[in-house]
Automatic annotation (TrEMBL):
UniProt protein name: Amine oxidase domain-containing protein
InterPro entries found in the cross-reference section: Amino_oxidase (IPR002937), FAD/NAD-bd_sf (IPR036188)
Lineage: superkingdom: Eukaryota
Domain Amine oxidase: 73-343
Pfam families reported for this sequence: Amino_oxidase
GO function term, MF aspect, one: oxidoreductase activity
Keywords: Signal
Signal sequence residues: 1-23
C-alpha cells in the first residue's frame, strides 16, 4: 500500500499537473479553480437572516462591573471597556493566574503553548492589540504533515487526493482534483446561499427555511448536499483541532468554523508554496500578552477570588466569597460579565429558568496538552502533525496532534527535520521538545493519558520521554445538533443584558481565540449606553 501511494503521487500527480498536454497546459490553480473561487467570493452578497438586536448593558461609565474569569475573553473585554471609558471594571479570577485556557511554558528558550496558541490573521483586533502592546513578532505556523497510518506521513494535498480517488473509485489524480474542487465550489455556494456574507464568527440568525438546511450533524449536512467528498477535509480542518467527530457535532458549528474564506486560503496554500497559511503563533507567548495587557492598561484583576455564589437582584450584583454571607465577605456590583465556561458557573450564579433552560444543555470535551522532551524518533517532514488514523479509530485520549515550537519558529522542515539533522533547541542538544495533544469526550484518568502517549511513543520509536508540564482542559463546551438547530446561540445573544449580565467566552460561541474576540466585539457593536 505504501509503495503504491508513493508511486501514485510521485508519478501520476507530477506528470498530470506539471507536464503540458498536447492541447493545453494543465496547472494546479486551473484544476482547483482558484480564479473562479476568488471571483465568486469577490461578488458581495448581503448577510441573510434576522438582524442582531440591540442589547442592554452597564448603565453608565462609572458603573461597577464584575467580570467573572481572567480568560482571554475576560481580559479582552475589560481592556475594551476601559478604552471605551468605563472606569470601574474588576476582573475576578478564582485561580492563582490570569489567562484561563492560555498557558505558556518557557523551556529551552522557546515558548510552548499548552492551551490557546494559534490565531488567524483575519482577526485584525488581535493583531492590533499585539502591535499596540509591542508583543510581536508573530509567525505563520506553516504546513502540517498528516499520518494516514503509523507507517508513513504525507503532505496534506496528496492525502486529500488519495481519499478523493478512493471515494470516486478512479485512480486518476486529475479526477480527484476536479471532484475536490467542485465540492469546494458547491460548499461555498451553499454556505453563501444560506448565510450571505457576514463578518466575524456568528452570522445573523437564519430564517426557518435556512435553519432547516443546517439541521443535524456536519456529516448529515455534507451527505444531504452530496458533499461527502469534503468529509476528510472537515476531519482535518475541524476534528483534528479537537472539536469532535463530524457525525456527532452540529452542522452549524462546522459551518461557522469552516467558512468560504477558510477554504479559499486552504486552496491558496496548495498552489503557492511560499504561502505558509493563515494561522499564526505569537513568538513571546499568549500568557505574556495577557499579562502585558493587564500591566500596561492597568486593569484591576484580582486572582484567588474564591466565589461561593452570586445573587443578582434587580439593581445589584451581590458576589459572596468563602461560603458565607457576612458583610465583609461580600462585594456589590452593578453589572456582571461571565467569561468562564457557563457549564462551570451554573452552580455559582443564581440562574433564572431561562438561563438554565439554555446552559444546562452544554457538554464539555477534554483536551490534555503535555510538554515532553523526547528523542527524535520517527518524524514527518513538518514540525506539526495530525494523526488521522486515531481520528478515524475514535480512540479516546489518543494523540491527535503534536507541534515542535522551536522548529516552527526556525522553519526547520523537510529532511532536515524528519532525519533529525538539526538540534531541537538553542542549547544545541539533539532531542526535541514537543507539545502533544490528546482529546476525549470524558474526563481522562492519569492512566488514560499515559497509555495514550505510550501507544504513540511505541509506534514512533520514542524511547525516552520526560514530561515537563501537563494540563487537562475543559475544551469546547458545546450544544448538541438539536439545540443548535433550535437557535440557542442566537437565543443567548438576545438574552444579553438579562438580569444585568453578559455572557461571553467560548461556551457561548466557539472555542477558539479568534471567535471569542469576535464575539466580544459583536456585543460591543450592538450595545448602546
Amino acid at each position: 500500500m505504501l509503495l503504491w501511494r508513493l508511486v501514485y503521487f510521485a508519478v501520476a500527480v507530477c506528470y498530470s499537473l506539471l507536464k503540458p498536454s498536447h492541447s493545453q497546459d494543465v496547472s494546479l490553480d486551473k484544476v482547483l479553480q482558484l480564479t473562479r473561487l476568488r471571483e465568486m467570493l469577490s461578488e458581495p452578497i448581503a448577510a441573510k437572516g434576522e438582524a442582531f438586536p440591540n442589547i442592554t448593558g452597564p448603565k453608565s461609565f462609572d458603573s461597577k462591573i464584575a467580570i467573572l474569569g481572567a480568560e482571554p475573553a475576560g481580559i479582552h473585554m475589560a481592556y475594551k471597556l476601559k478604552k471605551l471609558g468605563y472606569t470601574n471594571v474588576v476582573v475576578l479570577e478564582p485561580e492563582d493566574r490570569i489567562g484561563g485556557d492560555s498557558l505558556t511554558v518557557y523551556h529551552r528558550g522557546v515558548r510552548h503553548e499548552l492551551g490557546v496558541g494559534h490565531f488567524r490573521v483575519e482577526n485584525t483586533d488581535i493583531l492590533s492589540i499585539i502591535q499596540d502592546f509591542r508583543m510581536g513578532p508573530v509567525q505563520p505556523i506553516g504546513d502540517v504533515s498528516v499520518w494516514p497510518d503509523s507507517d508513513h506521513a504525507e503532505d496534506l494535498l496528496p492525502y486529500l487526493l488519495f481519499d478523493a480517488n478512493q471515494r470516486s473509485n478512479d485512480s486518476n489524480p486529475l479526477t480527484a482534483l476536479n471532484l475536490l474542487s467542485e465540492a469546494v465550489m458547491t460548499y461555498v455556494r451553499i454556505h453563501r446561499q444560506i448565510f450571505g456574507d457576514y463578518d466575524g464568527l456568528l452570522m445573523p440568525r437564519p430564517l426557518t427555511p435556512e435553519m432547516q438546511m443546517v439541521n443535524g450533524t456536519i456529516e448529515d449536512f455534507l451527505k444531504r448536499n452530496d458533499l461527502s467528498m469534503l468529509e476528510t477535509p472537515f476531519r482535518v480542518l475541524y476534528t483534528a483541532q479537537g472539536y469532535g467527530d463530524i457525525d456527532k457535532r452540529a452542522a452549524l458549528y462546522g459551518l461557522m468554523y469552516v467558512t468560504p474564506k477558510r477554504l479559499l486560503r486552504l486552496i491558496e496554500s496548495f498552489i503557492d508554496l511560499s504561502n505558509r497559511g493563515d494561522t499564526y503563533i505569537l513568538e513571546r507567548g499568549f500568557s505574556a500578552l495577557w499579562a502585558e495587557i493587564v500591566n500596561k492598561a492597568n486593569l484591576d484583576v484580582r486572582v484567588n477570588r474564591n466565589i461561593s455564589y452570586i445573587i443578582r437582584t434587580p439593581g445589584k450584583i451581590n458576589v459572596f466569597y468563602d461560603g458565607t454571607a457576612e458583610a465583609e465577605t461580600m462585594e456589590v456590583y452593578d453589572f456582571l460579565i461571565v467569561a468562564r465556561d457557563m457549564s462551570k458557573v451554573l452552580g455559582i450564579v443564581d440562574t433564572s429558568w431561562i438561563e438554565r433552560g439554555i446552559f444546562s444543555h452544554l457538554t464539555p470535551s477534554f483536551m490534555t496538552s503535555s510538554l515532553i522532551d523526547t528523542n527524535f524518533g520517527r518524524r514527518a517532514p513538518m514540525p506539526r502533525a495530525y494523526y488521522m488514523y486515531n481520528i478515524k479509530s475514535r480512540a479516546n485520549h489518543s494523540v491527535l496532534y503534536h507541534e515542535d515550537s522551536y522548529s516552527i519558529l526556525h522553519n526547520i522542515q523537510g529532511t532536515n527535520y524528519s532525519r533529525g539533522l538539526i538540534p531541537g533547541g538553542y542549547d544545541g542538544e539533539m532531542y526535541q521538545s514537543i507539545v502533544v495533544r490528546q482529546y476525549g469526550d470524558s474526563f481522562p484518568s492519569e492512566d488514560d493519558i499515559k497509555s495514550g502517549f505510550l501507544n504513540h511513543a511505541n509506534l514512533y520509536g520514542i524511547t525516552h520521554g520526560l514530561v515537563l508540564a501537563r494540563k487537562t482542559w475543559n475544551y469546547f463546551s458545546k450544544f448538541g445538533p438539536a439545540e443548535m438547530a433550535a437557535g440557542l446561540l442566537w437565543d443567548i445573544f438576545t438574552l444579553q443584558g438579562h438580569k444585568n449580565t453578559w455572557y461571553i467566552g467560548s461556551s457561548v460561541c466557539f472555542d477558539s481565540l479568534n471567535n471569542v474576540i469576535d464575539y466580544n466585539n459583536l456585543i460591543l457593536q450592538h450595545f448602546n449606553l
